Amino acid sequence: MRFETKAIHIGQKPDPQTGAVIVPVYQASTFEQEAVGKHKGYEYSRTGNPTRKALEETLAALESGKYGLAFASGVAATTAVLNLLKKGDHIIVGDDIYGGTYRLLEKVFKRWGLQVTYAEVDDLDSFARAIRKNTKMVWIETPTNPLLKTIDIGRLVKKLRNKKILLAVDNTFASPYFQRPLDLGADIVVHSTTKYLAGHSDVVGGAVITSKEEIYQSLKFYQNAAGAVPGIWDSWLVLRGIKTLSVRMREHDRNAKYLVKFLRIHPRVEKIYYPGFGGMISFELKGGYPAVERFLATLKIFLLAESLGGVESLVCYPPRMTHGSIPREERLKRGIKNNLVRLSIGIEDKDDLKEDIRQALSKVDKSQQNQETAASPVRVKVL
Fold first, then answer.
1. Is the domain of 252 the same as that of 238?
2. 170 counts as catalytic
3. Residues 206, 342: one domain?
4. 119 shares a domain with 25
5. Within the chain, where are the H helices?
6. More confident residue, 345 or 163
7. pLDDT digit string, tens, across residues 34-76
């Protein structure tokens, strides 16, 4: 069964009681038991729910995994994976990561005794050099957030081979449509289902997928014990969004490629970051933060907002938004400059999006010219 068909059918058979072709919303907190310990597969919705189970089966299938687990947010999913580790363990993390993951590592897990080393994602050998006797996990994003760097998962797997180190990959930016890390040798895949999987900016959720029974059992225990599970309607909304994932990702990709061609030749754009696929673009504007501020203020279709991956186009200023939790010095060290803008390209008409960016950049140019004129000294001819 191919990807597009899986997204619509796996885990989503018609309801056996009514024949409904869409998985019902089982809005139930608890389930009747025939006797103590004898039930029909469900006891309490924190532990398991038919709607959430359908979502988890679909997630596993799309990532070529055996087991899927849904969580209340991407951060909750990340927390579950990090809880596979214990005090004194060491984790190697790619240095270009979501600010929320950095905050979780630095402000939460380090306090619990986790040791963290950041490796340069541009140099895979830096991961190998960072390995210690107590290294238990490597965590990467690819493409990364916000500089959209890509990491060769297969090569990294070879460097970790025979070292009993788990490789966890945040696959949120690529989505399983473009990349399936488990097929490349990764042990764990993490998603913020809020983004491309749900795709409509109307739900917050997360997911973890693996093919390893031991990892799944540990994560399943944590999911139930900690209780950071998605609500039933949230599960249903993500499941609904997944049905159109293939169609949406093709449009995100098409629009982004079209806009990259325009941005690459625009004189106001200093540097552009694009992995060659997908719907995310980051770029640096000439003129520093004043230029960024003007650009953000004059966009009309692009909405200034956190998040990404929805059908509508969004613009984000990482230094103060998604990566504001990373200290300024650390941001600059990692290449996140004060003139960086991140775009989540939606599925609107590509020419409308291009025109919106063009007119905003023209306002930046005009504003810059006015500033330069005002700053120029008045030349008076002496008679």
1. no
2. yes
3. no
4. yes
5. 3-9, 50-62, 74-82, 99-104, 125-129, 153-160, 175-178, 213-226, 232-242, 245-264, 288-298, 328-333, 350-375
6. 345
7. 888 788 789 999 999 999 999 999 999 999 999 999 999 999 9
